[in-house]
Design a protein that fits this description.
globular; single chain; 22 helices; binds heme C; alpha+beta
Length: about 450
């Protein structure tokens, strides 16, 4: 009898011990083991197929909390009407240069205002009512006006080199107005409910009619509601037979016709990247040179492949984890734990980072999400990389990237990349240089 009691309490103790010491990733087991349906399966509920866009006002009635969270986020504020609320203008119009082709009075909408602010002005283009962009943009980081010629960055060979003839309908509005991507109607300003949940008329009339929720099926596909916008791309028609000239005045910079749940791969052509080659959007190792590259980088990361999604780190309504407002190491340590199966494989923070626990050098994102990109040519380096795998000083050197895009160098500008690489070696964080380079495909790139 005593023996049985002993065995039972031993087993209970063991179970409790295992429970309290379980890796933090355990609750994500269901997500990480979900079936992958592939990129081409249509996940949109049938009854949503002939639904129309109704705007967030309808959703608010029954989903007050989500509406409230979303309303306070920047998604709700991407496009703002100036009339009636001049406070939405963060630019200083008193210093607008004399050769500006617009005034504050001409501007109908502001675009953004966190890193930069641009202005939409009514115009007739191609015989249709449309909007054009002002030839100056406000850089919020430097607090200066900067010349802006969109045709230099958006399909140089498909649009006239004249701001007054450059329409926002084909080049911007699909990502900045709800409904425009699928219906070519500016149903609502900014990124509202239906940008991520799809048209909601049927569901609003009768909640039993399902509406798309990205986290229900395959986690790989969950990311698509975000990367429809947060990913650099090219007009899909260029993948088939079209040439850029044949798309004169119609080249689209968003996945035209896409609705959440549908297979994004049918609508989007990813901006090209070849490892070892620097392009206008990426450094030679694939890290972001510009903003809006989160998707391009993330789909190459091991976390993406294992089924971790954008919304594991960013609440889709509140938009948590933003510049100047991160969750700190908790953003990562809700899944990662020291000595756990998914790493870091060392027993303590200090043993992993080789910096004091309270040092800036022990913040996960400082080493795993270095600042590699800029919002404009004149902006400071503030865009954080979404390739989470650590990039060593030897790699940035190998790829001829500016040294300040390396995490170690960014904080230790008094040292050389070689010295910093040596520190890593001394710490035992780099096992075999060749081995490491091989895992990044460097040797393959070299032999080509
Ligand atoms: C008349 C009330 C009502 C309106 C209007 C409404 N909803 Fe719902 N919604 C519900 C109810 C009730 C549920 C729960 C349904 C269930 O569990 O079967 C729900 C569930 C949802 C879900 C979760 C679906 C899932 O599969 O888990 C989403 C997403 C959603 N609504 C989005 C929206 C959006 C976006 C709008 C506006 C276009 C909207 N709703 C308008 C009542 C409403
Ligand atoms: C940027 C994309 C995005 C926007 C905008 C957005 N949602 Fe969602 N919403 C999601 C995702 C993704 C989920 C799934 C979250 C999860 O499973 O953790 C979700 C979940 C929901 C749910 C289900 C919650 C649950 O617990 O199952 C409701 C209801 C909902 N959203 C309503 C809304 C309403 C109403 C709006 C507009 C006011 C809105 N959403 C705007 C992406 C978005
Ligand atoms: C329809 C296009 C669109 C979709 C869909 C979209 N975004 Fe965004 N997102 C934007 C734009 C545009 C901004 C910039 C808003 C601004 O600065 O005013 C932005 C900003 C953000 C920010 C920064 C917010 C801040 O406060 O600085 C985060 C984080 C973000 N998005 C995450 C997501 C995630 C996660 C998803 C998917 C659940 C998603 N977005 C879906 C267009 C989109
Ligand atoms: C494929 C979708 C897409 C297209 C097309 C697009 N944008 Fe954006 N834009 C985004 C997303 C997503 C963000 C926020 C993420 C980021 O900047 O990293 C953003 C950010 C911005 C910002 C910065 C917002 C801020 O608060 O600092 C401005 C300004 C902007 N876009 C203007 C434009 C203009 C002008 C066009 C057209 C000439 C355009 N965008 C086309 C998706 C798009
Ligand atoms: C493993 C966690 C993680 C994942 C996965 C992740 N992000 Fe992030 N992301 C972050 C953190 C942390 C930051 C804030 C960094 C900082 O302090 O500037 C960030 C920053 C951003 C920003 C810039 C916010 C701003 O202030 O303008 C955008 C936009 C964004 N993420 C979108 C995405 C999208 C879209 C995806 C999916 C393709 C994604 N993220 C996946 C952790 C993540
Ligand atoms: C929702 C859970 C989750 C969150 C949050 C999370 N991770 Fe991960 N992470 C994983 C999983 C699962 C893997 C895959 C482990 C493997 O390959 O064995 C992983 C792998 C990694 C890897 C190694 C492989 C690679 O190339 O990415 C790094 C580095 C990493 N995570 C860093 C981070 C950082 C930094 C953050 C915070 C900004 C973070 N993770 C947040 C779950 C998470
Ligand atoms: C001082 C820089 C630095 C900081 C800060 C840092 N890491 Fe790392 N991390 C590294 C290096 C270096 C590697 C090893 C890279 C390699 O071997 O390719 C690494 C590897 C990893 C890996 C891959 C698995 C492993 O153990 O090798 C994960 C997961 C990881 N880090 C997560 C984190 C998390 C979570 C944090 C925050 C608690 C963090 N790191 C903070 C430098 C750092
Ligand atoms: C976010 C800033 C930051 C990052 C990123 C960072 N460090 Fe540090 N580092 C510091 C600070 C601050 C100290 C001062 C001592 C401390 O806090 O531990 C330091 C101290 C050191 C020291 C010991 C003192 C010295 O100067 O010789 C070495 C060596 C070092 N870091 C190398 C690295 C390497 C290698 C990397 C990349 C893996 C790195 N650091 C990444 C901020 C950083």
């Amino acid at each position: 009898m005593k023996k049985a009691l002993f065995i039972v309490s031993f087993l209970v103790g063991l179970a409790l011990f295992a429970w309290f010491n379980k890796p933090k990733i355990t609750p994500y087991y269901t997500q990480l083991t979900k079936t992958h349906v592939g990129l081409r399966t249509d996940l949109q509920p049938k009854s949503q197929k002939d639904a129309t866009f109704v705007g967030s006002g309808k959703c608010k009635k029954c989903h007050k909390e989500h509406y409230h969270d979303w309303k306070l986020s920047r998604h709700a504020k991407m496009i703002q009407a100036i009339k009636g609320d001049p406070d939405v203008v963060v630019a200083d119009f008193s210093s607008l240069p004399k050769d500006a082709d617009f005034t504050l009075k001409d501007a109908v909408y502001t675009i953004g205002g966190k890193f930069k602010q641009r202005f939409m002005i009514s115009a007739i283009i191609n015989g249709k009512e449309d909007y054009r962009l002002g030839n100056y943009q406000w850089n919020c980081e430097t607090k200066k006006w900067q010349s802006f010629k969109p045709y230099k960055y958006w399909y140089k060979h498909a649009y006239p080199h004249d701001n007054k003839k450059f329409p926002t309908s084909t080049t911007c509005d699909g990502c900045h107005f709800t409904g425009y991507m699928a219906s070519h109607k500016r149903v609502e300003k900014g990124i509202a409910c239906e940008s991520c949940h799809g048209p909601g008329s049927k569901h609003s009339e009768e909640p039993k009619n399902p509406i798309y929720k990205a986290s229900l099926a395959d986690p790989i596909r969950t990311n698509e509601v975000c990367i429809q916008c947060h990913m650099r791309n090219r007009d899909k028609r260029l993948e088939q037979n079209s040439t850029i000239k044949s798309l004169w005045m119609q080249a689209r910079d968003y996945p035209d016709g896409y609705e959440p749940g549908r297979p994004l791969v049918r609508y989007k052509m990813v901006a090209p990247f070849i490892l070892g080659k620097e392009t206008k959007e990426f450094w030679a190792n694939g890290a972001a040179k510009k903003n809006r590259t989160q998707g391009n980088e993330y789909v190459r990361d091991a976390m993406y492949k294992h089924g971790i999604t954008c919304i594991n780190c960013h609440n889709p309504h509140k938009l948590t984890n933003t510049a100047q407002k991160t969750e700190g190491n908790n953003a990562c340590l809700k899944c990662h734990s020291f000595g756990s199966v998914i790493g870091p494989h060392q027993e303590t923070l200090q043993a992993h980072t080789h910096h004091k626990a309270n040092s800036k050098g022990s913040l996960c994102i400082e080493c795993h999400m270095p600042h590699t990109g800029r919002h404009t040519g004149k902006s400071p380096l503030t865009v954080r990389s979404h390739q989470f795998a650590f990039v060593s000083p030897a790699q940035t050197k190998f790829y001829h990237m500016p040294p300040q895009t390396n995490a170690c160098y960014a904080c230790h500008k008094d040292k050389t990349l070689d010295e910093l690489q040596n520190n890593l070696k001394t710490w035992g964080m780099i096992e075999w240089d060749n081995q490491e380079m091989k895992s990044y495909g460097v040797l393959e790139a070299k032999s080509k």
